[in-house]
Amino acid sequence: MSNEPAIAPTIESEFAVLPQHIGVIMDGNGRWATAQGKPRNDGHRAGVEALRRLVACAVEFEIDYLTIFSFSSENWTRPADEINAILGLMKRFVASDVSKFVAHNVRVRILGRREGLSKAILQMIDQAESRTAHCTGLQLNVAFNYGGRQEITDAVRALVQDAAAGKISAADIDEAAIAEKLYTAGMPDPDLIFRSSGEERISNFLLWQAAYAEFVFYDEFWPEFDREIFVRMLEEFAGRKRRFGGVGA
Ligand code: IPE
Ligand code: IPE
Ligand code: MG
């Protein structure tokens, strides 16, 4: 007699525990290009294609929130031509895909500091956010000019302003009050944070929100990302035992 179960487990049953919110540090564009003797900016271009595949996966698996790290507050230290290439690509990605987002019920939010961004980028942000504001499927957060420490600093500043205006007192400052001042106010924390390219660090991404995230690090460079990697990541997440400081089930 065979030991095979009568009904083979389907992908759906395997993913009984799907993450509600996935954060992705899309790393390795430059090394992917260099390894092929191409300029780094070719890697950023290929990275946008990988990002489109990621969004398609998140829609297919009905993930509620996807936060992608597209440009950090520290990335301004890169050479000007690379910065311009990345900003141009992100601007075009958001602008050109906005109709597709609406068609797939994807709501776009841009997380990060707005000060210092060009008029054209601010316009792109406003348009993407307003044109998709009614969408109720996947929420795609684009962390752009984003730094976790900056985000917490901005939150502290906002709380101090509220206190100075007499709206709150020191006793009102609790975790919920801080979370409400973050760019992610009202959103659940990420359950899973994925980073490509073999680097195993957080690089100032979602510092506060990642308190109990599960981390998955794979060696593939970001432009190599595909559905097979996404599924592998979900499988790994489903196998994790999350305890949140307790003793577990
Ligand atoms: C990630 O790829 C994209 C951004 C940081 C904008 P990198 O450009 O960091 O690629 P590597 O890490 O140098 O290979
Ligand atoms: C993190 O990658 C930022 C983004 C993916 C946008 P980096 O390549 O900037 O991070 P480090 O410098 O390796 O830590
Ligand atoms: Mg990098």
From TrEMBL:
Positions of the catalytic residues: D27, N75
Domain of life: Bacteria
Keyword vocabulary terms for this entry: Magnesium, Metal-binding, Transferase
Record-listed substrate binding positions: 28-32, 40, 44, 72-74, 76, 78, 195, 201-203
Protein EC: 2.5.1.-
Quaternary structure note: Homodimer.
Functional description taken from the UniProt entry: Catalyzes the condensation of isopentenyl diphosphate (IPP) with allylic pyrophosphates generating different type of terpenoids.
Official protein name in the record: Isoprenyl transferase
Organism: Maritalea myrionectae
Upper classification of the organism: Bacteria, Pseudomonadati, Pseudomonadota, Alphaproteobacteria, Hyphomicrobiales
